[in-house]
Structure formats: C-alpha cells, structure tokens
Predict the 3D structure of the following.
Amino acid sequence: MPAAKPVKSTKMVKRSAYRFDYSKAKPNRFAARMKDAPLVAVIDPDVAKVFTTAEQVNTALRALISAMPKERKIENK
C-alpha cells in the first residue's frame, strides 16, 4: 500500500488564498466621486427620537459648534 500524502492544514490553504500582489493594484477610480459625498453617521435610537430629520441634526450640531471655544475648532484637511 503506498504511503498517504500529508494533507495541508486548513490554515495554510486559507492563508495562501488571501495573498494579494499589491504591485498590480490600481488607484480607486471612484475615489474622486466620493470626495464631496455626504458623511453618514449612525445615531443612537434615543437621539433619533428627538431629531427625526437630517436638517434637525445639522441645525443642532451647528449650534453646538458655534458655542464651542474657537481654539477647539477642528480644521478641514
């Protein structure tokens, strides 16, 4: 009876399947479209009960920003 071939472990098979050659990567062609896209934030359910529209959330956040000290204002990158 011939000797059985050793079986590769599942870990080794998975690792080789996820190897990625970054030298063949291309720039994201959709990145420019996302530059000016709105930022989406998930708010907690209790906050969502108070602020039911995006306009209400933005108004409250702008009021909060205007009340903050000037030296704490974060600059856009």
About this structure: The two ends are 69 Å apart (CA to CA). The chain has a mean pLDDT of 81. Residues 43-72 form one domain. Helices lie at 10-17, 31-34, 45-50, 54-67.
